[in-house]
Design brief:
alpha+beta; four-stranded antiparallel β-sheet; elongated
Length: about 120
């Protein structure tokens, strides 16, 4: 490795550590807690459902992202046609987390959506 770039490695390692735990790790920390503790930590759930002695608490997260398309995509006749700018599109990203409660304790959770990271 070049001496000029040797200072970059510690910065990259520090940046990698600064990302923090993902959603799976954060939600896994809730397993074993009581329902009250879960609600204290995450707030009131969006939906609840009861079946066969189990209680399900669902939390929803939605966010909108403006996505700029590739400028070549907007050209009707390929890359040699006059440039017609492609309009950005608004995408909605989501992540639903559903906790399973048995005997007032969080047993498990599931993640569903395109923004569960």
């Amino acid at each position: 490795m070049s001496r000029r770039l040797s200072w970059l490695l510690p910065l990259l390692l520090l940046a990698a550590c600064a990302i923090g735990p993902g959603i799976e790790e954060r939600m896994a920390a809730q397993i074993g807690r009581s329902e009250v503790q879960l609600v204290e930590a995450l707030g009131v759930p969006t939906r609840t459902h009861e079946a066969d002695g189990l209680r399900f608490l669902q939390y929803e997260q939605r966010r909108q992202v403006l996505h700029q398309l590739d400028p070549y995509w907007g050209r009707p006749y390929g890359r040699f046609a006059p440039l017609s700018p492609a309009a950005p599109i608004l995408l909605t990203r989501s992540c639903d987390v559903t906790f399973t409660i048995r005997s007032d304790r969080v047993q498990s959770f599931t993640l569903r959506g395109d923004d569960c990271r």
